[in-house]
Task: structure prediction
Amino acid sequence: MLNKFWQKSFLILVFALLIYLNRNILIYRNAIDHLDTKEINAKIINKKERGRRSHMFEFYSYYYEFDINGKAYQNPSYNRKYKIGDSIRVIYSTQFPFINKTTED
Result:
């Protein structure tokens, strides 16, 4: 019986860890639709977000960066078409600017 408890606990821990690691896609990008937002211009920067199996297929996307009141915020664009230096539009939460996404999402 104790063994089943540890198995369930381990599965819950793994599931929680997966949600935490993917919180940007699973939680933040969906939550922004229910928050007060503004739009701003952002620049694609030389920082890569590697996709699954990127070591085999060179799948990656670049991050974008924007400033709010002197503080820089970065997020992956999740779009392979953007190149370093491109200017894009971003929607961000006025209360929590770390919650943001491109207008094309």
